[in-house]
Amino acid sequence: MADPMRIRAQAQGSNAIVRVLMSHEMETGQRKDAAGKTIPAWHISDVTASLNGKPVFSAEWGPAVAKNPFLQFTLKNAKAGDKVGVTWKDNRGDTRTDEAVVS
Question: 35 — phi, psi (to 5°)?
Answer without folding.
Answer: -85, -5
